[in-house]
Amino acid sequence: MFLLDQNEFFIDPARCIGCQACVQACSECDTHKGHAMIHLEYVDRGQSTQTVPVVCMHCESPTCAEVCPADAIKKTEDGVVQSARKPRCVACNNCVLACPFGVPKMITDFELMMKCDLCYDRTSAGKKPMCATVCPSGALFYGPRPEIDQLRPRSKPMNQFQFGRQTITTKVHMMAPTGPVKAQYLDVTEVMNENGPRQRIALDILSNLYASEDGV
Amino acid sequence: MASLPVKDLPIIELFGPHRNYSNGLRLESAVEPDKLVQTHCCFCGMQCGIQLKVKDNQVIGFEPWEEFPFNQGMLCPKGVKRYLQGAHPDRLLKAYQRDPAAPAGFRALPYDEAIQRVAQEIERIQSTYGPDSFAVFGGASLTTEKAYLLGKFARMGLKTCNIDYNGRLCMVSAAAANKKAFGIDRAANPWADILKAEVIWIAGANIAECFPILTNYLWQARENGAKIIVVDPRITPIARTCDLFLPIKPGRDIALFNGILHLMIEKDWLDHDFIDTHTVGFAALAEHVKEWTPRRCAEVTGITEAAIRKAAQWWGSAKSSFLMHARGIEHHTHGVQNCLGAINIVLASGRIGREGCGYATITGQGNGQGGREHGQKCDQLPGGRDIENPEHRAHVAKVWGITPEELPRAGVDVYEVFRRIDRGEVRGLLNICFNPLVSLPDSGFIKRMLERLQFFVTIDFFMSETARHADIVLPGSLHEEDEGIVASAEGRVIKINAAVDCPGDARQDWRIIQDIARALGREKGLTFANPREIFEELRRASAGGIADYSGITYEKIEKQMGVFWPCPSDDHPGTPRLFEAGSSNPIAKGKGRFYFPDGKARFNVAPYTPPAEDVDDEFPVILTTGRVVSQYLSGTQTRRIGPLVDQYPEPLIEIHPQLASRHGIKDGEWVRIEGRRGICTLRARIVTTIRPDTIFVPYHWGGGKSINQVTIAAQDPISKIPEYKVCAVRILNQYGPPANAQGLEPQQ
Ligand code: SF4
Ligand code: SF4
Ligand code: SF4
């Protein structure tokens, strides 16, 4: 039950189509039946159909566990950060506020923090997590490293994130497009800056439908 | 008497749509199911493989079916939550009779009594007004066995020519164009060919929301180096990251295809060998597209010249490609011409009938492909045969044990049947798997026509908006309560397996149809004991036809995970890719790859015509309609599945901020859409992802929320598909909710 097999989890938001199959499937998993743990949000529906799925990143040093006053959040030996333990959790919300990825959810009915546990009942038994099995776009992928390397030549898995001065290394990977800039980590706060240097996303292309000669 | 027995509120209160959520066993963890049933999702033409978890004769959940090759476990939200349609509080467990004195307008009655009543009314109407005065409507979510049986029941049992089906609102434009150009109506390639294509052209297909699983094929093709071109008035989730987006003005697709062909000829991006050897009609077409210069093309389509040239260059110089389209170019009064335009640029490139060189329409309904092949269409007999062709009539008559003279002639499309009701030519109607009051355009007319019927019987598992008008409602079967085959959008024939029994008095639809035939004393040829027996006869009836299923068996389907038709003999593996070099077919008989006597494909001149109702000063905005990912068709099933309703509860009007600000409309406000036929008031969703001259509304809702109160019933002259994708409206800020928003839940 300890070492999960060779499979790893990869997220590629560029592929996401916002269908919410992941959200619907997450609530079908035995460890959290009826509650979807995944987060799926539009970045700004007014401007774009871009959506971003967020599962728990399963950090090497989980901030949620570090801030928990009741020592309720445990990482199992296989590197999976589990939901809070029922007898210990005091429903203080510290973890919800502290997680840099915004993952834990306070389930008020149970007075318990629950979060993505990588579908522990499934992955610990050699099955794929629900969301990464159903996702029709490949935005969520669970499989061996050589397979993703072979399937996705245009991007590269990364698992280091810079939040201001905090560097976080995670078990789950984000696919970053390969291109001229070879980043070693994803600087999250930089991207949050509206005029960030790498924000070259062309939005609102239809407003200039009649004016522009290059509709591309 | 097919008017509503009482106001619709009390009917809704008793029969729904109510939202079903997981509870009881379905919410418990670690329940060991009695069995896992391998079958397919019922909610679109992708036909994803899925395993249903069954416990105590109830589907309690699902388990991905990763071995099924097409979707490998992937599902969209509809597939994930499909199990919640079973054990639903709204499920019809008994037969019902219209009764204005009953609190909800309907009174339960014993099943046999209901069948007798139906038989008496059919008998009365047909003996008074003639056999054609009773019409039959089917649907493309039925298994192929049921569709076959329904056609046989109508023509042999009822002897009526008036049978047609809801595929009329779906794939008929593509079907007609495919027959004109290729002589066969099927996607030319399996989806796996997408992975090998260098350029992918997507015209009028919101892949992410309507055919979600194809997304992975597209993105994987791109990892392999493909460029993706999307033509759509909206930046759909696929268009968001495509390589070239052509924001076409709704209704102008043929102009774009003609313009692309013009450039292909000008730059000599043509496969001359292919054109000379395998096609006819190119010279006339080349002459026709001379006038479609990039400038003219840009003027008509609203796409810039630069973008048109780039698209032509990519398409023209590609070595492999896949062109796919869906309702976006098909739902038009010139839908067939649009599809022919698409086929023309495929044929001119010579890129068809090879690995990585493909063309397909993407059928939308669960059995959109199979449901149109075996005889529930007004002009068609099993095996894709033509009801007006004497040889075809003779073949089917022989299988059915009747004379060809006994077979009725061609009938008319569903909308025309409603016009026949208006003229008093049709007085009675049997309906299954179809919710025309929600799904047909200009629904005010449909409602009035239902009210004119002397007798209306519907077979359904839920009380749909249309069923509320019925005199008798017979409790039919859900997808998971019966077995049979369907053909997916890629032409793969697959098997639906029963997971649970029908509850209460409900029973399998084929039994109900046969029970009616027996009560009429017309059971000859309609005494099948199970779907397999129907299928065995269907195999014989289709033998030698274009849609030849004679070599397919349930066992072969299971062993091969589906069999692509045509499959003309027991030792034939099926035909995933059509038109391959050296392939033969029963029409060309070795003369060539295409399904014509000379074996050659046809180029067709496809002239441009504007939409039937173009915008003007009075109605200056284009209205276009479509789907959202969490709902299916008229929502009879998906508006009853709680989590799917919650995902997208009510229809929203997508409006560009420029258009919205001109009318002082803010995000989330009520907006009234006014057209020549009706009005519809919904909330605005202000987005820059739509053309500023166009608004979009999804069509899955009934009553006051139905956008089909506004859409136009103008139809394509060949395919008879309605023009859902363009009509003219104006929009007004409504300042407050409409009366119909009160007292109803979002899905109602
Ligand atoms: S299932 Fe996949 S594509 Fe759909 S919303 Fe979730 S991550 Fe995005
Ligand atoms: S891995 Fe499991 S628990 Fe985590 S988001 Fe996916 S489905 Fe939910
Ligand atoms: S609706 Fe279509 S894409 Fe979604 S799960 Fe069902 S068959 Fe697959």
Commentary on this structure:
The complex is a heterodimer of chains A (about 220) and B (about 750). With about 220 residues, chain A is an alpha/beta fold. Chain A folds into two domains: about 5-55 and about 120-215, Alpha-Beta Plaits (2-Layer Sandwich), CATH 3.30.70; about 60-115, Alpha-Beta Plaits. Chain A is about 15% helix and about 20% strand. Chain A has seven helices and nine strands; from the N terminus they run βαββααββααβαβββα. Chain A has helices at about 20-25, 65, 95-100, 120-125, 130-135, 145-150, 190; strands at about 5-10, 40, 50-55, 105, 110-115, 140-145, 155-165, 165-175, 185. In chain A, the strands form three sheets. In chain A, strands 6-1-8-7-9 form a five-stranded mixed beta sheet. In chain A, a hairpin with a 4-residue loop joins β4 and β5. The longest helix of chain A has 7 residues, at about 145-150. The termini of chain A are far apart. Residues about 210-215 of chain A have low confidence and may be disordered. Chain B is α/β, with parallel strands linked by helices and about 750 residues long. The longest helix of chain B is centred in the first third of the chain and has 19 residues, at about 110-130. Chain B has four domains: about 20-85, Phosphorylase Kinase, domain 1; about 100-170 and about 365-485 and about 505-530, Rossmann fold, CATH 3.40.50; about 170-360, 3-Layer(aba) Sandwich (Dimethylsulfoxide Reductase, domain 2), CATH 3.40.228.10; about 620-740, Barwin-like endoglucanases. Chain B is globular and about 70 Å long. Chain B has a seven-stranded mixed beta sheet with strand order 5-4-18-17-16-6-7, sandwiched between helices. Chain B has a six-stranded mixed beta sheet with strand order 24-26-25-28-23-27. Chains A and B meet through α1 and α5 of A and β3, α2, α7, β10 and α12 of B. The site of one iron/sulfur cluster has 14 residues of chain A, from α1 and β3. One iron/sulfur cluster binds near residues 16, 20, 53 and 137 of chain A.
